Amino acid sequence: MIRTPLRPLARILAARSKGENPETIERENIRLRHEKMRDKSRARAEGRLLVLAAIFVVAFGAIGLRMGAMANTDPSEPRGTASSAPILAQRADIIDREGRVLATNLEVFSLYAQPPQMIDAERAARELVRIFPDLDGERLLEDFTGSRKFLWIRKKISPEQKQAVHEIGDPGLLFGPREMRLYPNGSLAAHILGGASFGREAVSGAEVIGVAGVERMFNDYLNDPAEQGKPLQLSIDLTIQSALERVLYGGMKLMNAKGAAAVLMDVKTGEVVAIASLPDFDPNDRPRPAVKGDPTDSPLFNRAVQGVYELGSVFKIFAVAQALDLGLVTPFTKINTRGPLKWGRFKIRDFRNYGSELTTTKIIVKSSNIGTARIAQMIGAERQQEFLGALGMLEATSFEITEAKGGKPLKPGNWSELSTMTISYGHGLSTSPLHLAAGYAMIANGGTRIRPTILKQDGPQFGERLISEQTATAARVMLRGVVTEGTASLGGVPGYAVGGKTGTADKPRERGGGYYDDKVLATFASMFPAHDPKYVLVVTLDEPVETSGAKPRRTAGWTAVPIAAEIIQRVAPLLGMRPEVEPGQLAGITLTSN
Question: Where exactly does CATH 3.90.1310.10 map onto the chain?
Answer without folding.
Answer: 94-233
